[in-house]
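Protein modeling request. Please complete all fields; requests missing the sequence field cannot be processed.
Requester role: graduate student
Desired output: 3D structure, token encoding
Chains: 1
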Amino acid sequence: MSVLSSKVVLVVGDQNTQIHNLEESLVAHGVSIEHMQCSEVTPEAVMEKNIDLVVLNHLHNDVTCVEVFKNLHILDMRSVLPVFALIKDVEREIQDVLALGAADYITEDESIESITHKMKTIFGQGLDYSGESVIDLTPDEVPVSKSGTKVYVIEDDPLLRNLLSIRFEKAEFDYRVNGTGVDVVAEVSKFKPAAVILDLMLPGKEGFELLEELKKSEQTKNVPVIVFSNRDGVNDRKIAEELGATGFYVKAMTDLSELVEKIEALS
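Delivered output (267 residues):
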């Protein structure tokens, strides 16, 4: 059974082809769909419908729709209501919606499969990719050729940090985790890892800023940096490559064994 089964998704804003196709896919996963216009979204209305996730059509950057983020932020503080914003694949708009508090963004040309995997990640199952590559955390042993390889992880998501820890321990990797991005250059310089795994959405510093710092430092410029993020825009990949990233992997579409193989190849 999909982790999305029985979830209630609120679609806010105008309909378009991408929204329509996404709704069809979600219904097939057992999701219930609710609709509102931006002006109708209030904390009371959202709580009354027991919404689990919001999809916001933010293509037109309407001021009223910006208010949706503010309204949702004052909901029950015991949990965070994730918002997926549909936007143009433009760096400025990506930064804007993430700064407003979106859990993730989606674009008009993004595959529906990619979007649903991102949503599964939010609910703790997104890394269990149902395509040809399936993440398997169950084996007691993972075939590795270079045990003791050092890996430095920059990731603020507790769930993903745990999954990476499990995988690296099985691979007999020596790893360190930084959840904030603070003191990265100094710590990487001291730890001397074979590779750095870098998320792009972090509290405090932006991932690309950290990548630039690592590549400008004489102590860390030669350490391979692998971007591991739910951001999957063409511009994101271009910037990562220009700044010197060695690889770019999308969390919701990646088997963690691929990371192990990539890291081994670099060590």
